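Methods: holo model generation. Sequences were used as deposited, without trimming of termini or removal of tags, and paired with ligand SMILES retrieved from the corresponding compound records. Each pair was processed once, and we did not select among multiple samples. The sequence and NAI SMILES for this entry were:
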Amino acid sequence: MPKIVTLPGDGIGPEVTAAAVEVLREVAPDLQFEEHAIGGMAYDAHGDPFPQRTRDALLDADAVLLGTVGGPQNSPWNSLPRPMRPESGLLALRKALGCYANLRPVRVQPGLEHLSPLKPELARGVDILIVRELLGGVYFDQDRKIDGDTAYNTMRYTTPEVERVARMAFWAAEQRKGRVTSVDKANVLEVSELWRRDVQALRDREYRSIHLNHEYVDSVAMLIVSDPSRYDVIVTENLFGDILSDLAAVIPGSLGLMPSASLGDGAGLFEPIHGSAPDIAGKGIANPAAAIMSAAMLLRHGLKRSDAANQIERAVALALRAEPTRDLGGKADTKTFTNAVLEAMGTPVG
Ligand SMILES: NC(=O)C1=CN([C@@H]2O[C@H](COP(=O)(O)OP(=O)(O)OC[C@H]3O[C@@H](n4cnc5c(N)ncnc54)[C@H](O)[C@@H]3O)[C@@H](O)[C@H]2O)C=CC1
Ligand SMILES: CC(C)CC(=O)C(=O)O
Ligand SMILES: [Mg+2]
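and the model returned the structure below.
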């Protein structure tokens, strides 16, 4: 009986996680769920955004399903010492799980081109996988400080860190169209120079069947939305990947359509890429599709149950076709959309 640790967190996290769990219970009744605290609500309840009890629960987990963390801009959480803030709890969770590769698919399913603000001929068939390095760069480096009118953070990578995430990107590309674009800022940053050198060397040594090119992050920010079909797999460092993937959410039409899987040393972590959306939290209108599709990624990557994952993804596409959520200009709210997905799972294929 696989054990799934759920961490609903803050804001819309509990709303979208409840929807994802409902769908998982339907396709995989043998799963055992154990809910724990993370983020701002964990700080309020236990004085720690990543409490020891949550940490302990991960030890025998087969997979972790996360909602979102963080409060609105005026939240008292934002005045806490940085290690006590909700976002620090999430970073500590990722580190504890050793999830160094964050897979963020950007797909426009057939028949859903109309949800994209892009011209249909640009949106049609888009299928990009962004592989974001998740445990390094400015988010984690301890060489950081704010002192009076001076502050700094450090973007640092080592060859082993670059190679392990690049390997994940090459592995994914082998099962796709065989193309990897490595994204950096090597014209300005030494850390990007190392990144580019190491990704190229690994490709030349071990992945000669993969077509690898290198592009600058500023140019990719333009091209990913103006010519998305040029990309198959994108691999990039932590901060660039965070920003590019939110930008890429424009392609399917909403952040609410962007799931993710974070893989690495042990149990995988599965979470929507969006934040806690304080502007809509508690209203019952959050789009749960990203969380539900993250649950599908949990089944595929965490439990090796691809059939069940495909069933969920197909049902989400059918539900979106029938009635999109508010963020996509439709009328469905969290509950009606989740019910539509559950109903579509019983619909015969074809
Ligand atoms: N993985 C995580 O838990 C993340 C947490 N955050 C945190 O979330 C909080 C809010 O951050 P924001 O910058 O406002 O980003 P956000 O992603 O929470 O929201 C950006 C915009 O997208 C909308 N949105 C996001 N997800 C949606 C969904 N499922 N359905 C419908 N609309 C959706 C929101 O309503 C908002 O207008 C902050 O405290 C931030 O630090 C931000 C990003 C990731
Ligand atoms: C720590 C998170 C708030 C960073 C983020 O925006 C993300 O992982 O998508
Ligand atoms: Mg982000």
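The radius of gyration is 20 Å.
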